[in-house]
Amino acid sequence: MRTTLLGIAIASVVAALASAQPATRFTLGTFERDGAAFVGLVVGDEFVADIGRAWGTFGAAADVPPPADMKDLIARFDRGIRARLVAIASAVAGGTAARPRYVVPLDSVKTLPPILYPTTMLNAAVNYREHAQEMGIQSSPGGAAAPGTALPGTVSAPGIWERKPDDTRWNPYLFVKLPTAVIASGEAIRIPPGRTQIDWECELGVVIGRQATRVPVERAREYIFGYTLENDVSDRAGRGDTRHGNDWLIAKSHDTFAPMGPVIVPAEFVPNPQALKVTFTLNGKVMQDASTSLMIHSVFELVSYASHITTLRPGDVIATGSPAGVGAARTPPIFLRAGDEAVCAYEGVGVLRNRVDGPE
Q1: Mean pLDDT lowest among 43-57, 134-148, 229-243, 303-317
Q2: Phi-psi sector, 347: left (phi>0), alpha (psi -120 to 50), beta
Q3: Global pTM?
Q4: What CATH number is given to the structural domain containing 268?
Q5: How far apart are alpha carbons 235 and 285 in whole angstroms?
Q6: What are the Cα distances from residue 89, in Å, to 41, 153, 209, 240, 300?
Q7: C-alpha 23 chain-centroid distance
């Protein structure tokens, strides 16, 4: 009984300190060491703490078990988990003299996709005006209206997206990307056999924190757990006919076409997701250089829109669209080739690195 009460008392102190003080900045990911996967907490891009191994060190009470995986961590983040993560982060950042055994160098573990695997992955199509312009997507015949501006006669989608009288933008557009396309930072994007027009799209990923159904835009922030990166790799070659228009399955969901990570940054450390610098480099050359301020529809609008179509769950991911600078829009076009290195970076969120391999 005394041991139990002591554990509960320690846990209460940890929770009180965590809520009273600003948290040491940390990120979260899924890693592998000695063949076993674990959920890890990263501080300073140098060390990672195995959360499961660290859990009991901070007096974990029986009613707050350690997270089984990233989805479980996200779902229970505000029910005792955050407080303990704040304490772990403080311990990891506290110095190098005697690091706990649950802390190891980040370069000694293998990085896995942060979420294994999102149940639902949605991506925004053409959510930057400059990208619409470079792809030749005009809103009005003859280009009278700027890309991103709605065609005459555009109306609301009842029950999904209600247009305000002064809203001149086109309606949001989301498509499904299969979770089987997900790979980690450091893994290889594989060019499928016979496909020669493989392109990049460096995007901000929004990680859903709790079940969301028909969420108003003004409350969407409450449903976001954090942010990650996704390279929305795209096959521009099409299906060989025009039946039913564009084939989004071929274009977006080949195996390895959704590099994600390397980590998730909790939303409390990203105060304004609409003010992040975006950079994509190919073999060290800058190809995309933009800002999330240029989005047509904001992070919160996309979460709201998606939640009016499908119920979002903890660990689901919405990628928010690519800025200008993709390979297909260049003269001549530039496509990914075996041996390339693709690097997608968002200020304050991370750097996603992937080499490109040919077909297996």
Answers
A1: 134-148
A2: beta
A3: 0.92
A4: 3.90.850.10
A5: 21
A6: 7, 53, 20, 52, 28
A7: 21
